[in-house]
Predict the structure of START domain-containing protein.
Amino acid sequence: MGVQVSKLCTQCFQVEEDSSIPLIETTKSEFTSSTQTLTEESLDSRVEENHPMQSHLFKLIENASIEFLSHIRCQFEEEGFNELFKKDKIRVLTKDCENGYTLKSEYFLKCTAEQFIDLLKDVKNRKMWDENIEKIELVISLPEETSVFYIKYKKFLIISSRDAVVVNRIMRAHKGIAYISTSCEHEDYPESEGTVRAYVETAGFYIEPQENGGCRVVGFSIGDAGGNLPKNMMKTVAASSLPKFIASVEKAIKAEICRKSET
């Protein structure tokens, strides 16, 4: 099948040709290597053409992508944002908003953009390296590098367990790759007692290759974690956990967790 690159990329960026960045394909791509090899322990990852929810889900992720990319194409330090966390080469900015709060981060990984994307998509092994995850399932696999995940996060100290159903899309953007998510609903995953349903207006990663073989990551999210805890507490916990997340990503890639899932 031919190249599947969302039109949103050209709406938000003046795309530059760069042969070092693979284009996205629906069935054969470095980005799909992990999810195409899931075992019977996971949900079937075959792409569902013309799924009854496809039009609705595509509209959700397209709107979220426009919002996400508008914050990535500008300078990292945006007007109205305050610095929340800074350590080594990690920076986190924040801003309160009507739907909860906004977080914007910048950091560098010792891996390629493709390796990071592959790790994020590897549902089967996500819990092996991400200690925050209690449960993650691939719900639907759609065309145009779009999927629906159910994610449940572990309880942490006084913070109750959170969960979310999100639709994700991978697209080429500017000089890198964007992995974007937004909340959606699915009848098989209703809200449950004892778990707080989080709302994600838009969230994701913009990953740009660097000359040293690593990549620069800009994370951005607008959402509401739900519950009654103060926003400042939730923001601080999210920002302070970033160094551990980065270390876990690099450790998992070095251990070739994604490749092991193929054997």
The CA atoms of residues 101 and 222 lie 6 Å apart.
